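Q: what does this look like with iron/sulfur cluster bound?
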Amino acid sequence: MEDIVCNGCSLLCDDVAAGVSGKTVNSLGLCKLGHMHLETALTHSVGSNEKNLEKVADILIGAENLLLYGWTHTSNEAVREGLGLAATLKGKFASSTDMGAMKAMAHSIHSKGLEIDLEYVRNNGEFIIYWGADPSESLHRHPSRFAVLPRGKKIPEGIESRTIGVVDVRQTETMKMANHRLIIHPGSDAELLNIINSELEGKSSIKGTVLGIPGSELVGFISGLQKSDCTVIFYGSGVVNSGNHDANLTGIAKLVEALRSNGKEAYALPMFDKPNTMGVIKATLTGKYETNSLQRLVAGEFDTVLIVGEDVLANLPGPVAKALSNTKIVYVGPPGGLTDNRALVSIHTMDTIITGLGTMTRVDMNDIQFKKWKPSKEDVTIISTLIKLKELVNKKKS
Amino acid sequence: MKLNPMDLYNLLPKTNCRLCEPKTCMAFATKLALGDISPDKCPPLLEPGFEKNLEKLTELVAPMLSAESTGIKLDESKCTGCNNCVVVCPVDVAAEPPTSEGKAAMSKDTVFRVENGISKIINLEKCRRFPPDKLNCRVCEQYCCTDAIEIW
Ligand code: SF4
Ligand code: SF4
Ligand code: SF4
Ligand code: SF4
């Protein structure tokens, strides 16, 4: 067994190990999702790509309106290389992160200084709230590694020293660990946040049932917030994809500010499931970035799309996926999946969990370095492919 | 058998009167579900009007207050490998202290270890429910969100 880093989700667990013997892989510490991801990545066979590199370079050069798309499954180094390639080809760079409001959200959270190191959450987080986020569905180790169960400096008894709240539109598995379970009407997040915020300002208005929540439960939740010295809100797709994300995020930011103005610590962090969503956001905070890529795709503005590292066709909403299939698709990434199948030409690469090269950025903006381990095949990474492509493009152009 | 704190909470007076040691009804319900407290520690429950609730609660928590006959089972098909059991089990914390800070179990000395994405009970005999400890511990069952762990 050797130490590895898992990129099965955005937690990028770096306390895990794996070993390969014959055709089987054994792992320690990886959750089910992570182990399955590792198994799949090990089945990828990657041959020589030289011919396809030429073809892809020609298609990219011949493109009139080029989009470079995907990226949330690639390393930070590959993202930087991608931004460079986009500049060389005068193409637009966009990622699947701008689906919903993820990017705007991360920007506003970042500019307001709402984020915090997950290790700090483990050591200090007293009132933990999962809002529209169910880690038992996608980020399996979030509660055990950072937010709910582990002991920390100011959390001597683990979960016994914390208060856990879950706000969701339905019963979730995470609620089983919670002291406060608030099941709300779909789409009423912003309204609930307003009510909580005005309670915190001392304007008491809670009577009877509020948005489906018994008044006494809501009062208990708010008094928990008032008592906590360090509150951390983890918000997920329920907040972001409800069609009302701006109001929801403003409400969360206001709540954090209200708690801080009472002299308490408070933070808010997103729950992304794709491994390097935060890395893409970080890299594009300053760089050139196409923000309306989905609308422009649907409008048929791009004739060629280079998709990197991700099976986007399997995840995009119907109309976008349809518009995308009407363009020339070239693909760089692990073999298999809809996008690879539909692509005119594909260049296959090994997954970062296998190559063990580069960094990705965890949701708390910390860069996590991958670890080299035995089955690594350095020569077929996304980054080396992008570098070769750039060289070829430059050569062909001159 | 595993008790849902929410069901127990619904049988409490729900006044958060702070007369009990956990101070709130929800905290009291959580302790009840773990077998850490008995229903008669809630003074308002002993007052007239709550006889039925007290009776029902006493009946529900009776198995929780004893560690007499015991068994522990892990249904691998339900397990997501979340590592919750590894981190909360007091035996694991003693055998491999980093687990208490959320780290995955790597040694062969813990009760639970997540292997190939699924938690395995690798040292059942170390569980504190068994002799010589015979303690009424059931925190792994309590914090296994998928109900993969069952103690009886
Ligand atoms: S929680 Fe995420 S990063 Fe950690 S082992 Fe599971 S899939 Fe991998
Ligand atoms: S004594 Fe009973 S009613 Fe009062 S807070 Fe405790 S559980 Fe609730
Ligand atoms: S019941 Fe046994 S296995 Fe479960 S947490 Fe307690 S000591 Fe560990
Ligand atoms: S707590 Fe339950 S689901 Fe999580 S690893 Fe342990 S047995 Fe599996």
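Chain B touches chain A through 33 residues (CB under 8 Å). Chain B has six helices and four strands.
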